Each structure stands twice: as structure tokens, then as C-alpha cells.
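ESCALATION

Customer reports they have been waiting on this structure for their group meeting. Please prioritize. Original submission:
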Amino acid sequence: QVQLVESGGGLVQAGDSLRLSCVASGRSSSTYAMGWFRQVPGKEREFVAAISWSGGSTGYADSVKGRFTISKDNAKNTVFLQMNSLKSEDTAVYYCAVRHTPYSDRDYYTEDHEYHYWGQGTQVTVSA
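Update from on-call: job pushed to the front of the queue and completed.
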């Protein structure tokens, strides 16, 4: 079992920055690909960004490309999402997700069904 705890959300103004963090605990010997998704009430959860377990491969939704950066610290089982130039449409609950992957896996994953564990979410609100 893996537990994920997100932090870093909050209320900011358009144009501001936030950095989300997500710490995974429970299976220290595993290799994880990690991702961020977001959801607003009444809409489906959508992909934001993902990173391979090694950190060598990353992917982004078109809506955040060039503004958000995903990174990870494997020694601390932590993934980060640096969000710059925030817009009101970025307002959502942001979820961290983890997928167990083999050591040889160099891929990142963009579909929520590909992930095995999820955090509780952290609210990001961007005022116009």
C-alpha cells in the first residue's frame, strides 16, 4: 500500500505561481512513475503532467505546457508541480498519482486508469 500526501495548494491571483508537492510513503523499494491530475466540480478529472520514475521523461497537457513543470526527487519519493502564470481556468482540486513501474520503464503515463494510487487532493484557486 502507498500513501500520498499533497501540499502547496492555496488561493492566488492570476499571474502568480504555486508549487505543489506530493510525498509517497509505504513501499520504499518501489520505482514509481508519478503524475498530476485536476478536477473541477461537474467535470471529469483531467491529466495535467506526468513524469517517468527516473525523471528523464515528462509530459504535459496542452493547456499547461510552458507554464507548469513537473519534477521529482526519488530519494524522497516526492513529486513537484511548479505552476507559473496561473490562470483562473487552472482552478481545481489537484491530485497526485503513482504507478508502480519496472526499473527498466522509461515512460510517463497520461491516463488516470494507468495509476495505482491517488492522493486526497489539494485545492488550487486562482482569482481573476
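Sent to customer with the following note: The longest strand covers residues 92-100.
Escalation resolved.
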